[in-house]
Amino acid sequence: MTNQLLLVGEVVKPPRMSKSPAGVKHLHLVIDHRSQQQEAGMTRQCFLRIQVVASGDWAQDQANQLTVGSVIEVQGFLNRHETSNGVPRLVLHAQQLKKI
C-alpha cells in the first residue's frame, strides 16, 4: 500500500546538496506550510515546518532552481529520522517536487 502526501510550502533555508557513501545525491530543504483546515466544524490556522529530502540525479536540477522564498509543491512519503543525538525528526521524502 502506498500513501502519498501532497504539501505546498515556502523554502525557508538555503537548499543544501549532499552525497551518500553510495554516491546518491540528496537535496535537503526546509519548508513552511500554512493553511486553514476544518476541525469540529470550525476553521483553524495550521502551520508546519518540515525537512524535505529529494534523492537521485533529478535532485541536483531542482537545487539549481530553488532559493529561499521559493514556493514549492512536494509529493512524497513521511519517514522518521534520528539526529546524531538521538532526537527523532519527521522528514518528507520527495518523489515529485515542482516550483509554483
From TrEMBL:
<dbReference type="GO" id="GO:0003697">
    <property type="term" value="F:single-stranded DNA binding"/>
</dbReference>
<dbReference type="Pfam" id="PF22657">
    <property type="entry name" value="SSB_1"/>
</dbReference>
<comment type="similarity">
    <text>Belongs to the PriB family.</text>
</comment>
<comment type="function">
    <text>Involved in the restart of stalled replication forks, which reloads the replicative helicase on sites other than the origin of replication; the PriA-PriB pathway is the major replication restart pathway. During primosome assembly it facilitates complex formation between PriA and DnaT on DNA; stabilizes PriA on DNA. Stimulates the DNA unwinding activity of PriA helicase.</text>
</comment>
<dbReference type="InterPro" id="IPR012340">
    <property type="entry name" value="NA-bd_OB-fold"/>
</dbReference>
<dbReference type="InterPro" id="IPR023646">
    <property type="entry name" value="Prisomal_replication_PriB"/>
</dbReference>
<keyword id="KW-0238">DNA-binding</keyword>
<protein>
    <recommendedName>
        <fullName>Replication restart protein PriB</fullName>
    </recommendedName>
</protein>
<dbReference type="GO" id="GO:1990077">
    <property type="term" value="C:primosome complex"/>
</dbReference>
<dbReference type="GO" id="GO:0006269">
    <property type="term" value="P:DNA replication, synthesis of primer"/>
</dbReference>
<dbReference type="InterPro" id="IPR000424">
    <property type="entry name" value="Primosome_PriB/ssb"/>
</dbReference>
<comment type="subunit">
    <text>Homodimer. Interacts with PriA and DnaT. Component of the replication restart primosome. Primosome assembly occurs via a 'hand-off' mechanism. PriA binds to replication forks, subsequently PriB then DnaT bind; DnaT then displaces ssDNA to generate the helicase loading substrate.</text>
</comment>
<keyword id="KW-0639">Primosome</keyword>
<keyword id="KW-0235">DNA replication</keyword>
